Amino acid sequence: MILITGSTGFIGINLLVKLSKNKVVALYRSEEKKKDAQKFLETTDSCIGNIIWKKSNTNNVASLEDCFKDITHVYHCSGLISFSVSDKEKLNNNNTESTKNIVNLCIDKKIQKLVYISSISALGNEINNRKINESSNYEYTKHVTPYSFSKYNSEIEVWRGIEEGLKAIIINPGVVLGESIKNDAPEVKLSKTIKKYPFCFFTRGGSGFVNINDVIKLSIKLMESPIYNERFILVAKNYSYLSLIKKLMKKLKIKKVLIPVEKQFIYCLYYLDFIFSLIGIKNRYMSIGLIYSLIDKKKYDGSKIIKFFPEFNYSKLF
């Protein structure tokens, strides 16, 4: 039987839709999120009767252990996304420590295969504008966000499990576009912001993007394949943030005034954030790593997966 962690999240719930043709255990943390997930599932072609809901905290080994009964395959999708410096400890607990617990239980329970949904944030960097790939070297510097470091350390736990005999796959999706519960997916949030105001701010950076359907399709394909102990970047296209906003505006059939937020202004916000946190007005949020994620035009190479599945083509994003 299959177990999914983070089953009420963006990727987890979409996996649940596709995997519910058979019995599947769906882990959740809060009753409210479970109710939202169930409402969303009612609008899909999922087999709701096959879903076994189990309340569990991935930081609690005892509650997790009960959920692993009769489980053979695990999709680990749970995790915290935050770019706030003050959430460093939460990120470590919700990402790194929870992954450590999942890996340990997979080894202990002799799970046949683990698919871990990570992030492109966990990847290294390249010089001279070369595309980042699965082998790019990761270095912990001030340019790294606490979120990135927590995901990198989570992957270290999976690689440690592999060294101990666990069969696993690590997936590094780009920014995932598509719809989800309560319309809280990145694309929907950005679209709402664009619609709300007469103008739209953008920074000079960029990133890699992928459709949610591709992430789900390939996660299942990799789980069911004989491939293991590999990692795959899933990125269909690399866009600057300006290009992304323009494409969304075209899709929404609206026009807005576009205002660039330059690096100097972002640094001013960074120092104000530091001063306000120092005098106790607010918790610190910004980091140098966050600034670089806003201004760096990172590009990712998502072609490795095609070498393993030549028949696969990434879906169009717009």
Question: If you had to describe this structure to a student in words, what would you say it looks like?
Answer:
This protein has 318 residues and is of the alpha/beta class. The chain has a domain at 2-178 and 210-237 and 300-308: Rossmann fold (3-Layer(aba) Sandwich), CATH 3.40.50.720. The protein has helices spanning 10-19, 31-42, 61-67, 88-108, 146-163, 186-196, 212-224, 241-252, 263-278, 288-295, 304-308, and strands at residues 2-5, 24-28, 51-55, 73-76, 113-117, 168-173, 175-177, 199-202, 206-211, 230-234, 237-240, 257-260. Helix 4 links the parallel strand 4 (73-76) and strand 5 (113-117). The two termini are 36 Å apart.
Largest sheet: 7 strands, parallel
By secondary-structure content and strand pairing, the structural class works out as: alpha/beta
* Computed Rg: 20 Å
- State the CATH topology of the domain at 2-178 and 210-237 and 300-308: Rossmann fold
Query: Based on the structure, what is the oligomeric state of the protein chains?
Result: single chain
Identify low-pLDDT runs.
none
Spatial separation of the terminal alpha carbons: 36 Å
Q: What is the element string, with H for helices and E for strands?
A: EHEHEHEHEHEEHEEHEEHEHHH
Shape: globular
- Overall pLDDT confidence: 93
In terms of DSSP E residues, the strand content is 15-25%
Fraction of helical residues = 40-55%
How many β-strand stretches? Answer: 12
The CATH architecture category of the domain at 2-178 and 210-237 and 300-308 equals: 3-Layer(aba) Sandwich
The CATH class name of the domain at 2-178 and 210-237 and 300-308 reads: Alpha Beta
Q: What is the fourth-level CATH superfamily of the domain at 2-178 and 210-237 and 300-308?
A: NAD(P)-binding Rossmann-like Domain
